[in-house]
């Protein structure tokens, strides 16, 4: 008997099997074999199918479980109106003869064992045949009698689209995935079950990207409001002209699978997209990537982006990199592309390691690039106009008279009055006042010094909100720019820290800074800097404070009460350390935190 995809076979298609007795079983068992009929003799030209009865015999000594051969093939449903019987089909084989099919799968029957064990049995459903995506398997119905198909045959319908249910069989892609993560990752950028599309980008780079509202709403509050809020949209297509397609795909990949896929070319656009759709975990992954790849070559470019995206930690790391490698950073291509506010931010710093004459030359280069961006001729008048406040941040009094005469005095950027005032400042005593700062940058001649008070490093120093403190006195005038601090014993970690210098006798806070620093887990100290140098007078007691919030850290032992540091000028700066009365979180002269004071003379 044969049947078409659009009709059900007659009851005569199923013949009752003769009873087959098993000595171990309380009743006989019987089975049906689903066999594709050869030739395809239906009106629609498709493959015909038949259920052919076969008996299963057992003999004493053989296992009690019987095997029924189930033939399978990729069904090709026939058009409506096809005959339920095939005149060209071969007569069914006799019960004693084996079935003839091209291929078959063995299925073990354990009904007898279940009955003996007293386990209730349910009707046996056909086993789904699962295939790889490039050879989709078709799921049979889950019961012999599907709704609307009293004879138990699968409902008719057109060939299914893989992964969809068009009222017909479905490709069982779900069964090929073993975890929820795999199933959701499979749906990434996939039309299967998608209920929204995004038109991302503009121009030739525009892409149409499928997505699933539920997944997006679970991963992003912005998408949740977009689809489910009071002002939610019901559009099937949403335009995103301000987002790069690759960045949006990176965002979706993260929402579907937790996978981060960013690189040097895409990290900034992914960071923008993560911020736009409020996905802080991906945002942090971008920031961490930038931190790992921060160098003097890209410090200015990343500083501009960090300020634009309001990433203070990244901005602080960029500024620290610029401080340590000022000349190389200023020579990088990204320097001339920074905005005016970022230029002023850098020129205000007291911690730049560069001669003022070279800093002026770099600033002139920036003004030339800015004139070109504004479409102005590169003249000294236009350069002065574009520099604006930045020009007043150049510390001309720190130059030698030769440096000033060979550079700024001949640039035409300064007025004649300013040039005369500065020459008088260089040559006349007492020096007349000028309109430019004369506070030294701590590292302008490489005179930064560090005094270390411990001889050995140990592990575990905890923090509970109490400040680590140590008193010190020095025999000459210095400028303190920061402290060296010990970092984590648990690998790379970040600390929140407040540092202070307080005049011990009066309690006056000379300087304070709330900041963060990142430890790489080594025993090396990490610089925590003040916003500007702190003047420390000779033979005056000061107290250094550090309040840390973070994991347990290394600490110093075998502390020294008196330490002398050789200065570049040939003389010495001698420090004496004493115990600071009160609660110091355990820090003392002998052991604790604040191992280093960073200063210049």
Automatic annotation (TrEMBL):
Pro residues bias locations: 90-101, 123-139, 152-162
Keywords: Cytoplasm
Subcellular location, record wording: Cytoplasm
Every BTB domain range: 194-264
Region (Disordered): 1-170
Chief location: cytoplasm
Biased composition (Low complexity): 71-89
GO biological process: neurogenesis
PANTHER family (alphabetical): BTB (POZ) DOMAIN-CONTAINING 2B-RELATED, BTB/POZ DOMAIN-CONTAINING
Protein name per its UniProtKB record: BTB/POZ domain-containing protein 2
């Amino acid at each position: 008997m044969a049947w078409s995809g659009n009709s059900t076979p007659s009851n005569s298609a199923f013949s009752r099997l003769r009873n087959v007795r098993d000595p171990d079983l309380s009743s006989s068992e019987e089975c049906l074999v689903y066999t594709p009929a050869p030739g395809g003799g239906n009106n629609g030209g498709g493959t015909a199918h038949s259920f052919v009865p076969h008996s299963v015999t057992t003999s004493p000594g053989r296992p009690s479980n019987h095997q029924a051969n189930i033939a399978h093939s990729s069904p090709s449903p026939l058009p409506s109106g096809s005959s339920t019987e095939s005149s060209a089909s071969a007569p069914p084989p006799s019960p004693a003869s084996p079935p003839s099919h091209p291929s078959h799968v063995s299925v073990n029957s354990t009904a007898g064992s279940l009955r003996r064990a007293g386990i209730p049995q349910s009707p046996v459903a056909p086993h789904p045949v699962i295939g790889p995506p490039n050879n989709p398997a078709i799921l049979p119905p889950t019961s012999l009698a599907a709704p609307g198909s009293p004879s138990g045959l699968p409902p008719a319908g057109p060939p299914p689209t893989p992964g969809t249910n068009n009222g017909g069989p479905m490709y069982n892609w779900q069964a090929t995935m073993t975890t929820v993560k795999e199933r959701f990752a499979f749906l990434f950028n996939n039309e299967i079950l998608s209920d929204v599309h995004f038109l991302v980008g503009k121009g030739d780079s525009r892409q149409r990207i499928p997505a699933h509202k539920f997944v997006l709403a679970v991963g992003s509050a912005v998408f949740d409001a977009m689809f489910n809020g009071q002002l939610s949209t019901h559009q099937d297509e949403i335009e995103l002209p301000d987002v790069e397609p690759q960045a949006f795909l990176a965002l979706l990949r993260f929402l579907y699978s937790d996978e981060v896929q960013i690189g040097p070319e895409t990290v900034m656009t992914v960071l923008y997209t993560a911020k736009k759709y409020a996905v802080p975990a991906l945002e942090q992954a971008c920031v961490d990537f930038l931190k790992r790849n921060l160098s003097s070559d890209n410090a200015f470019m990343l500083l501009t982006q960090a300020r634009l995206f309001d990433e203070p930690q990244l901005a602080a790391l960029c500024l620290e990199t610029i401080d340590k490698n000022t000349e190389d950073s200023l020579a990088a291509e990204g320097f001339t592309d920074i905005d005016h506010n970022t230029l002023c931010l850098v020129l205000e710093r007291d911690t730049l390691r560069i001669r003022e004459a070279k800093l002026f030359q770099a600033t002139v280069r920036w003004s030339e690039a800015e004139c070109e961006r504004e479409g102005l001729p590169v003249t000294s008048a236009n350069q002065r106009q574009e520099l604006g406040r930045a020009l007043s941040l150049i510390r001309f009094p720190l130059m030698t008279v030769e440096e000033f005469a060979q550079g700024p005095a001949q640039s035409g950027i300064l007025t004649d009055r300013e040039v005369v005032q500065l020459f008088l400042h260089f040559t006349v005593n007492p020096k007349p006042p000028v309109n430019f700062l004369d506070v030294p940058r701590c590292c302008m001649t490489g005179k930064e010094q560090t005094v270390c008070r411990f001889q050995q490093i140990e592990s575990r120093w905890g923090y509970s909100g109490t400040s680590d403190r140590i008193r010190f006195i020095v025999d000459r005038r210095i400028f303190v720019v920061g402290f060296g601090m010990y970092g984590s014993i648990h690998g790379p970690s970040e600390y929140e820290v407040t540092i202070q210098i307080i005049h011990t006798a009066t309690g006056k806070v000379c300087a304070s800074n709330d900041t963060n620093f990142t430890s790489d887990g080594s025993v090396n100290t990490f610089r925590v800097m003040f916003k500007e140098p702190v003047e420390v007078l000779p033979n005056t007691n000061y107290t250094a404070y550090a309040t840390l919030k973070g994991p347990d850290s290394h600490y110093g032992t075998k502390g020294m009460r008196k330490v002398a540091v050789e200065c570049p000028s040939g003389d010495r700066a001698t420090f004496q350390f004493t115990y600071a009365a009160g609660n110091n979180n355990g820090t003392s002269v002998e052991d604790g935190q604040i191992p280093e004071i960073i200063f210049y003379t």
